[in-house]
């Protein structure tokens, strides 16, 4: 089966995730700039999470563009990724509402870490289906960037037990690493 329905379904789920995050932000009671202070942590959490969902959407698009078809294993691997990404609005909202305290920051890190693991599993399922010489396999290689990201998430989760600010810096750092769409796949497709 082709990738079109998988891409359309994933795009829809990711759009809903962003919408849910936006709806979690409550409109402040007041008409001056001072009234925005109360929602600043939620807004900052929303910005980071919006960037993450955008990163996943962009890289997911590139990954599926590089393959010709999918199978049942890929469908379930994709559903696994979407499950973890669907937890980002809850974790993001809880983190913002509680001003980046320890447990919400830890839960947010777990959601990010598991999303990273799920993305890796999806990539490996696609590589298994298309072979070690496929465009995706060659483009990703050993996926050092993905593995390093998951390691940073794990470090950040443990850092939150001591200082949540360090965790937030690490989460933002991983987003920074991935902010520019993964050019490895684009470069490989252009060569073919």
Oligomer: single chain
- Helix content bin: over 70%
Give the beta-strand count.
0
Distance between the termini: 23 Å
Shape call: globular
Mean pLDDT: 91
Number of helices: 9
* Most strands sheet: none
What's the Cα radius of gyration? 18 Å
Number of domains: 1
Structural class: mainly alpha
Order of helix and strand elements from N to C terminus:
HHHHHHHHH
- Poorly predicted regions: none
Beta content comes to under 5%
Membrane topology: Multi-pass membrane protein
Protein name: DUF1211 domain-containing protein
Transmembrane segments: 6-23, 35-55, 75-94, 106-127, 147-180
Pfam families: TMEM175 (PF06736)
Provide an overview of this structure.
The chain is an all-alpha fold and 192 residues long. The model has no long low-confidence stretch (mean pLDDT 91). The protein starts with a helix and ends with a helix. Helix content is 77%, strand content 0%. It has one domain. The protein is globular, with a radius of gyration of 18 Å. α1 packs antiparallel against α2, α5 packs antiparallel against α7 and α7 runs antiparallel to α8. 33% of the residues are buried. One of its GO terms (cellular component) is membrane.
């Amino acid at each position: 089966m082709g990738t079109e329905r998988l891409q359309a379904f994933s795009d829809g789920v990711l759009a809903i995730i962003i919408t849910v995050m936006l709806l979690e932000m409550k409109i402040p009671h007041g008409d001056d700039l001072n009234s925005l202070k109360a929602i600043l942590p939620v807004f900052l959490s929303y910005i980071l999470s919006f960037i993450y969902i955008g990163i996943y959407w962009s890289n997911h698009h590139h990954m599926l563009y590089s393959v010709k078809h999918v199978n049942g294993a890929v469908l379930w691997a994709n559903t696994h990724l979407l499950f973890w990404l669907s937890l980002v609005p809850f974790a993001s909202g809880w983190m913002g509402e509680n001003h980046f305290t320890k447990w919400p920051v830890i839960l947010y890190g777990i959601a990010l870490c598991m999303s990273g693991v799920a993305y890796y599993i999806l990539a490996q399922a696609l590589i298994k289906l298309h072979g070690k010489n496929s465009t995706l396999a060659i483009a990703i290689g050993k996926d050092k960037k993905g593995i390093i990201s998951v390691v940073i998430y794990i470090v950040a989760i443990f850092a939150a037990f001591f200082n949540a600010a360090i965790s937030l810096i690490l989460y933002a750092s991983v987003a920074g690493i991935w902010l520019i769409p993964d050019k490895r796949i684009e470069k490989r497709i252009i060569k073919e």
